[in-house]
Amino acid sequence: MPEALSDPDFYFILLSVFGSLSLLVTSLITFRFLAIVISVGYLLVIFWVGLDKVGMTAQLGTSLLGIGLNGVMIWRYFYARSMASLAYTWRSIYVQNFSLMLPYEFSELVKHAQVNTIGSQEDDDGVKIQEQEQGFRSLFYILDGSATVSVDGDQVATLYAGEWIAEESFLTREQAKDDVLINHATLLEWSAGDLHRLKQKKPEIYEKLNLIISRNLCHKLIRAYSEEHRLIQLRLAES
């Protein structure tokens, strides 16, 4: 055994065995880390043997290439999952409302949307982007500005940046229950076709979008019921 420990071939065989066993790892990023460790092991043995030996130069090139390629892929993996991969203008939006997604998933979601500026500050009438009894056409997210929600001609709510439009129709596929008017706002818009393509290409992102909107809708309902409960309590106290 002591003789084997002084034989470079023993370490080459050992590294080959570890390289084969690393294929059993199910995590790709773990596999890449192991591949770098094994390549570094090969480098140590190569320099121990000496580059003047047959095949060592080729083995050196292979090891360096493996370290370089796996290093780049590891960097890409972590970069895509970091805030640095997002454009500066999208970072606060991601943190506030889309943090259930990974940064690269949010970037993919935005790629499937259109950024639209609707109306103007001089326009008092507004632009109606949703009507009562209308089937689902598009999902909207307000980036800037506001929207007015009306039911049977009565204004019932005002939506601001960070809120969704047509989210109930998106989740239930039922007809809209209210009218939504925009005076001047910048919106992210996903048409029904955009969402269908997202579901086909990136189903995991589509499911996370459903979860984000469901959570947002729950928060809206909680706020609405809390306000209604507060008003009832005030009326009871006055009476």
Strand share of the residues? 15-25%
Mean pLDDT score? 87
The CATH homologous superfamily name of the largest domain equals Jelly Rolls
Structural class: alpha+beta
Q: Over the alpha carbons, how many angstroms does the gyration radius reach?
A: 29 Å
Could you tell me how far the N terminus lies from the C terminus, measured between alpha carbons in angstroms? Answer: 95 Å
Helix content: 55-70%
Specify the CATH class of the largest domain.
Mainly Beta
Spell the H/E element sequence.
HHHHHHEEEEEHEHH
CATH topology of the largest domain: Jelly Rolls
For the largest beta-sheet, the strand count, sense and barrel status come to: 6 strands, antiparallel
The domain tally reads 2
CATH architecture of the largest domain: Sandwich
- How many strand elements? 6
Give the uncertain stretches in residue-range form. none
Per DSSP, the total helix count is: 9
Could you characterize the architecture of this molecule?
The chain has 239 residues and is an alpha+beta fold. The protein folds into 2 domains: 2-80, no CATH class; 87-238, Jelly Rolls. Helices cover 57% and strands 19% of the residues.
Give a short synopsis of this structure.
Helices cover 57% and strands 19% of the residues.
Features of the shown structure:
6-stranded antiparallel β-sheet, 9 helices, 2 domains, Jelly Rolls, 57% helix, single chain, alpha+beta, 239 residues
Note the topology:
Blueprint: H1 2-5, H2 8-21, H3 28-49, H4 56-80, H5 88-97, H6 103-111, E1 114-119, E2 127-130, E3 138-151, E4 154-160, E5 164-165, H7 167-172, E6 179-191, H8 192-201, H9 203-238
Antiparallel strand pairs: 1-6, 2-6, 3-4, 3-5, 3-6
Helix pairs in contact: 2-3, 3-4, 8-9
